[in-house]
Design a protein that fits this description.
Strand content: 25-35%
Protein name: YCII-related domain protein
Number of strands: 6
Shape: flat
Helix content: 25-40%
InterPro entries: Dimeric_a/b-barrel, YCII
Organism: Nostocoides australiense Ben110
CATH architecture: 2-Layer Sandwich
Pfam families: YCII
Family: Belongs to the YciI family.
């Protein structure tokens, strides 16, 4: 099994009325429930946009420095995501397709690197 990130950028989503958003929520929760029943759902969340940004943090002289910006220079930002644990790319594509149809906006699929190899500094090796 491998974990995959299924995500969409907020800019890919056209404006919606509150009723349309509620309908998309019902449709997407139906897919999430199917993922749970199939035992592949790990975690998901959405409704992210520019208003949900908390801060920017960077390292300076080994210490975290928190600011209100600047943020990455981009017009796109994460709008929502789901993490699934499935056997292969085809299964990840299947679930991403289900979400794309339920929400009627594009989804992007990323495979997380496998964590089965030890880190170079792992004391257990």
């Amino acid at each position: 099994m491998a974990q995959y990130l299924i995500a969409f950028n907020d800019e890919w989503v056209p404006p919606h009325t509150p009723e349309q958003i509620r309908a998309k929520g019902v449709a997407s929760w139906a897919v999430i429930d199917e993922m749970r029943e199939a035992g592949v759902f790990v975690y998901g969340n959405g409704a992210l946009d520019a208003s949900t940004v908390v801060c920017n943090v960077e390292s300076r002289d080994g210490e975290p420095v928190f600011t209100d910006g600047p943020y990455a220079e981009t017009k796109e930002h994460l709008g929502g995501f789901t993490v699934v644990d499935v056997p292969d790319d085809a299964a990840a594509r299947y679930w991403a397709g289900r979400l794309a149809v339920a929400l009627e906006w594009p989804q992007e699929v990323h495979r997380f690197p496998t964590m089965d190899r030890p880190r170079p500094d792992d004391p257990r090796k």
